[in-house]
Amino acid sequence: xxxxxxxxxxxxxxxxxxxxxxxxxxxxxxxxxxxxxxxxxxxxxxxxxxxxxxxxxxxxxxxxxxxxxxxxxxxxxxxxxxxxxxxxxxxxxxxxxxxxxxxxxxxxxxxxxxxxxxxxxxxxxxxxxxxxxxxxxxxxxxxxxxxxxxxxxxxxxxxxxxxxxxxxxxxxxxxxxxxxxxxxxxxxxxxxxxxxxxxxxxxxxxxxxxxxxxxxxxxxxxxxxxxxxxxxxxxxxxxxxxxxxxxxxxxxxxxxxxxxxx
Length: 262
Known about the structure:
single chain, two-stranded parallel sheet, globular
């Protein structure tokens, strides 16, 4: 996909037609639009530079908000050294608190038109931002989920992880009355006003943040939620994957706490 200014898109679409431009992967991004990318980081010294550079290679204006969750493998020192060169906003936790806590810190600090979550590994492709932002730019959505299960390429890995993800999504849907296909996805994109409305309510410090955010969004009156397909290059545990079966049990607890008993 190729991002274009509104003026450029209007000029090209006047010749080709808007539907043809969309089919060719041409997208219009308003000149004043800024996407805040919140990156929670814990012990990702091998991948963090690649991820940040990939985010900044996306042809839209971004604000990169990195929250280091007390890394001990050299990630924190690298981020401090390169923060100016990489043009990132760096925030640090004084103890390891979990992905959910890092996201809460990042959401509050974001100032862009929209906010998206980006993990610090190499599982998700930032170029999918161009697709994900379209329902918001078109005025059709307040929240967009990037789904790994609706038609895009993905790395073939763990069967039981897939079963677990689908089960948690089904359970979440049953209690929120949504029809998502991938509740546990990293790529959750929000209009900034929406995520900053629910950010003060967030309580989960670990991976339970995913079902909690979904339950909070579902409870918003008239929130418009869309799903878009994304690619996915999952990691093995040897490559650094951190989530485990205990986090699945915790996710069930969070679905019941925030969706069923709300």
